[in-house]
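Bumping with the actual sequence this time:
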Amino acid sequence: MKRHAFLVVALSLVCALTACSVGGASARDGADEQAALSMANPWSSAESGEEAGKGAFDDVFAVPEDLALGDTEWKAPKFSYMDGIAEANYDGGAVEAWVRKGSGVSGSELHGVYSEFEVSWTTDVDGVQVSCSGHEEGVANLLEWNVGNYGYTAYVIGLGGDNYGVDVADIPGLVGSIK
């Protein structure tokens, strides 16, 4: 009888400890999840580049309606903005392509790309120095430049393992078309 009572007490203790540790982790995980879910999305949708520019920094944001790079052409970008940044996102299926303009931000704060690139170079486009980074010579995946008080960035990359970017010959047209 003592042995039976001891086993019942021991099993009860194990069950209680297990329930406490699982319950504690679950409650903690739930709190972290709730905090993540309650964070506001800083991006707002816009119907046009003009609306995105007004919402981001009360100025012009102009990009080409049709964007042609190499053999790919995108039409009708989707616009969004947050405080200080306007974005045009071109849906290219297996290719991600977007352009951003920022006021008071530049570099990684503007583009948010933290990938390592194998090559980088600088090119001059009508007196504007454009920093280019890519995974192969002559193909830029990330472009960055500044004009006046604004920083600009363009990011083009193939999804699914293909390297797709902006050929050197297309850089002046792309940079010159964004205001």
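The tokens above came from a reply further down the thread. The chain has two domains: 1-39, 44-176.
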